[in-house]
Design a protein that fits this description.
Distance between the termini: 41 Å
Helix content: over 70%
Number of helices: 13
Radius of gyration: 26 Å
Strand content: under 5%
Order of helices and strands: HHHHHHHHHHHHH
Number of strands: 0
C-alpha cells in the first residue's frame, strides 16, 4: 500500500470522525441547554415559595431514583411516554407533525382490552399477549392512517386532522364505555380474561406496589426496531429524505404520499401499543381518560430526544422523573411546578436549537482557521530549472 493511499484513508477516517462528532454535538447540546434553563427557572420558582432549591431537588431525586417504589413509578410513566414520543418522532422524521398520539394511545388500549375480554381464560399467556398487542397496534394504526390518507389524498394538514381526531376518538370511546362496557358506577371495562403482563415486583420484590411491568421491555424493543427502520433500511432512508426535502426526494423516485401515509400509520401503531402498559400491565382493564395527556407530552419527549429513538427513551425517563418528582415534593411546592418546567423545556429547546447550532458553527470555523497552516507563496519556494538564466 502506497503512502498516498494510507494518507487518503487517514484523511477519510478523520473526516468521518469529525462529522460524527459534529452530529453528536448538535444532538446533545440543545437538550442539555434546555434542561439547564428549566432548572434555573425551577430554582427561581422554588425560591418564590420560600423553599431551598437544593432541598427540593434532593427530595425529588430521593422520591424518584432514590427508592425502588419511586423508580418503579418512573419506569412505568417512562414506558408510555416512550411509545408516544416514538410515534411523534417518526412523524417528525418524515416532516409531519403528529399531534394525534393521545387518541391513538387510547384506541390501542381500548382494543387491547376488548381482545383481552374476548379471549377465554385458558388462552396461553404468550398467545394472548401477542394478540392483545397486535390489536393495540391495529387500533392506533387505524387512527393514524386516517390523517395519513387525508394528507395523501386531499393535502389536509396533519396538525388539524390529528387534533380533531383526538376529540372524535376520545368521545367515541367514552360513549362505548359509558353505554356498553363499563362496570356499574365506574367508567372502566371489566378486567381482562387473558393477556395480562406481570409486574416487575413479581421478579424483584423491592418494586412492590409500583406499576412498573414488563411492557418496558416491549418499549425498548420498539425503540430498537424504530432505530433500525430509520437508519438501516431503504424505507427509513426514503422517509428521512422526504422529511428533509420532499421535492428532491420525489424527483429521486420516492413516493412522497406513500411515505406520509406509512409514517402516520406506523406512528399511530406505536402509540397504540403504548396503551398496553396501562391495560395489560397495570390495571388490567381499560379506563376512560387513562391517557391523561401522555400523548401530548410525547411531543415534548420527541423534541428533547431530538427525534432519535434512543434519545426519545432517555427524554421519556427525564419527563417521567419530573412527573413522579412533582408528587414527591408536593409538601414543599405545588406539583404544578412540574407542568411549568415541562413547558419551559419545550420553549427552551425550540429556541436553543438554532442558537446552539450557530455557536457550534462559529466555534468550528475559528478552530479550523487557527489550526490551518499558512500556505507558502510560490515565490518563496520557487525552484530554478537547470540551465535557466537568473
Amino acid at each position: 500500500m502506497t503512502s498516498s493511499t494510507v494518507g487518503g484513508i487517514t484523511a477519510s477516517n478523520t473526516r468521518s470522525k469529525s462529522a460524527m462528532r459534529e452530529k453528536l454535538e448538535e444532538a446533545l447540546f440543545p437538550p442539555l441547554v434546555a434542561i439547564l434553563v428549566a432548572f434555573v427557572c425551577g430554582d427561581i420558582l422554588i425560591l418564590s415559595f420560600g423553599q431551598s432549591p437544593l432541598t427540593v431537588w434532593r427530595l425529588m431525586l430521593e422520591g424518584t431514583w432514590g427508592n425502588a417504589y419511586g423508580f418503579g413509578q418512573v419506569l412505568y410513566k417512562a414506558t408510555t411516554l416512550s411509545f408516544t414520543g416514538l410515534a411523534v418522532a417518526l412523524g417528525y422524521r418524515a416532516g409531519l407533525f403528529n399531534i394525534g398520539a393521545e387518541g391513538q394511545l387510547a384506541a390501542g388500549g381500548f382494543l387491547a382490552a376488548v381482545v383481552g375480554l374476548a379471549l377465554p381464560v385458558s388462552t396461553p399467556a404468550i398467545l394472548a399477549i401477542l394478540l392483545c398487542c397486535a390489536a393495540a397496534a391495529a387500533g392506533g394504526g387505524v387512527v393514524g392512517a386516517v390523517p395519513g390518507w387525508l394528507r395523501t389524498r386531499f393535502g389536509a394538514h396533519e396538525v388539524i386532522t390529528t387534533i380533531m381526531l383526538n376529540f372524535i376518538v376520545l368521545a367515541f370511546l367514552n360513549w362505548i364505555i359509558a353505554t356498553h362496557l363499563r362496570v356499574p358506577e365506574t367508567l372502566h371495562t371489566p378486567e381482562i380474561h387473558a393477556g395480562a403482563l406481570p409486574r416487575i415486583d413479581a421478579f424483584i420484590g423491592a418494586f412492590h406496589g409500583s406499576a412498573a411491568n414488563l411492557t418496558i421491555l416491549v418499549a425498548l424493543a420498539v425503540a430498537a426496531a424504530t432505530w433500525w427502520y430509520l437508519f438501516r433500511t431503504r424505507a427509513g432512508y426514503d422517509l428521512r429524505a422526504v422529511g428533509l426535502q420532499p421535492d428532491a426526494a420525489e424527483y429521486g423516485g420516492v413516493n412522497v404520499g406513500r411515505v406520509f401515509f406509512s409514517a402516520l400509520t406506523w406512528g399511530g401503531a406505536i402509540a397504540g401499543i403504548g396503551g398496553v402498559n396501562f391495560v395489560l400491565g397495570y390495571k388490567h382493564y381499560y379506563e376512560d381518560g387513562f391517557a391523561g395527556g401522555t400523548g401530548f407530552l410525547g411531543i415534548a419527549v420527541a423534541l428533547v430526544g431530538r427525534n432519535n429513538p434512543f434519545g426519545v427513551v432517555l427524554a421519556a425517563l427525564f419527563f417521567a422523573t419530573l412527573s413522579q418528582g412533582g408528587l414527591a415534593v408536593n409538601a414543599f411546592v405545588p406539583k404544578q411546578i412540574v407542568d411549568v418546567l415541562q413547558g419551559v423545556v419545550i420553549i427552551a429547546i425550540a429556541s436553543s436549537v438554532p442558537e446552539v447550532r450557530r455557536i457550534l458553527l462559529g466555534a468550528r470555523r475559528r478552530f479550523t482557521t487557527s489550526t490551518t497552516p499558512d500556505v507558502p507563496t510560490t515565490s518563496e519556494h520557487a525552484v530554478t530549472p537547470p540551465g535557466a538564466v537568473v
